[in-house]
Design brief:
There is one protein chain. By secondary structure, the protein is an alpha/beta fold. The protein is built from eight helices and twelve strands. It has a single domain, classed as P-loop containing nucleotide triphosphate hydrolases (Rossmann fold), CATH 3.40.50. α1 runs parallel beside α2 and α4 packs parallel to α5. The chain is globular. The two termini are 14 Å apart.
Length: 227
Amino acid sequence: MTESAIFISGTDTEVGKTVVTRGVVRALKRRGQRIAVAKPVESGAELVGGELVPADAIALLEAARSDEPIDRVCAFRFPDPVSPHLAAANVGAEIDGDAVLALLAERADGPGFAIAEGAGGLLVPLTDNLLYADVIARSGYRLVIVAPNVLGTINATLMSVESARARGIEVVGVVLNQTPPDELGNAEAIAAHGRVPILGELPSAEDPGDTDALADLVERHLDLDAL
């Protein structure tokens, strides 16, 4: 894998992982970078015209200004908004870890950046015997952790950092998202105890649907050069 293969995971669901990923993708695209995006597994896809539409994967393609086929970006999509292993089981399917790895390898095979987004946190199960962290470790992608800048995030973020390193995953840094006006001391504590760079503290986006506005936030508040 190249040094520019980045996997973005959260400390939990609903932490703004997709919002951050879209902003990073568009910001790098505006810098003239080639971007290959991936959302290998997506639950909660909407059934439209008899086909499951993975909204997050499509949003990543839009952020990259790419017209690639969705199957190159998202290998598995399921209707139920639950953990991937259960979403697959609910429709009598099973996620193939080798297929996820093959997709990630294909996305990283070329110049520029490969940026993949996970589902929830690192220890989300893809099957009864496979966690997302295991796939990331085997892929060779470097990891960025998105955490909400709220009370309690120190513990959750440090556990994510430790889980990643225990599997040999290189942690590039942490993005603190939805930063409140009041200082909580999260960045300093996570950096000190986790010995991990804080890539930036993003405020809440006024319009999460505006990808260029997200890129503006990323350019102002995140250290893109660290990627």
